[in-house]
Specification:
The protein has 191 residues and is of the alpha+beta class. It has 5 helices and 8 strands. Helix content is 21%, strand content 30%.
């Protein structure tokens, strides 16, 4: 049924790369709300090496993941097979937020497809890589990616993005600091 892996091997890489959606879970250090976010756009996720992954963090209605990671670093990323053989892959680890001002951002951003509204890149150092059966996960078909998030970001000018981030991305729903004021300026380039 379940298996622990010491690295992200070729089979796991292939499985991860084939999934059109993945889920990110984080939680505050004490109390507060556990957050689970679905992520689309397959080109927003990258396996960096055998134990490190990264994903593109795009503008959104909240800033839970960034706030939680900056507070305690705990994160789990989950992939489910909705077609083909049943499988669930969970990547447990410590995440960090790489913002455009960080030296490694320019190199990381090259690993992803083109998307406007980039806030950061989330890098996860995996300390547990596990897969399990997924026998109860339903079959579902993938039609296509929704383009609404990219379209929303493209419609916003720099001032509108700055105002949105200042209003919605400075702290989590539990009041944990998210993006700092200097980090609410939109990236002038996108991935």
């Amino acid at each position: 049924m379940g298996k622990i892996h010491d690295r992200i091997n070729d089979r796991l890489r292939k499985f991860i790369g084939a999934q059109p959606v993945y889920f990110v879970a984080t939680a505050p250090e004490h109390g507060g709300h556990v957050n689970v976010s679905p992520k689309g756009y397959a080109d927003t996720f990258s396996v960096l090496d055998d134990t490190t992954v990264a994903y593109l963090d795009l503008d959104g209605s909240g800033v839970e993941t960034i706030a939680h990671l900056r507070q305690n670093g705990r994160i789990t990323v989950m992939f489910c097979a909705f077609s083909g053989p049943p499988n669930i892959v969970r990547l447990y680890g410590t995440g960090r937020v790489v913002v455009p001002e960080d030296p490694e951002f320019a190199e990381l951003i090259k690993r992803f497809g083109p998307h406007p509204g980039v806030r950061s890149v989330i890098v996860v150092d995996c300390d547990r890589i596990a897969d399990s059966c997924g026998y109860s996960v339903p079959f579902m078909s993938f039609d296509e990616d929704r383009t609404l998030l990219d379209e929303w970001a493209q419609r916003k000018d720099t001032q509108a993005k700055r105002a949105y981030r200042a209003k919605h991305n400075r702290e989590s729903i539990d009041g944990i600091p998210g993006l700092a004021p200097e980090e609410t300026d939109p990236v002038v380039h996108h991935s």
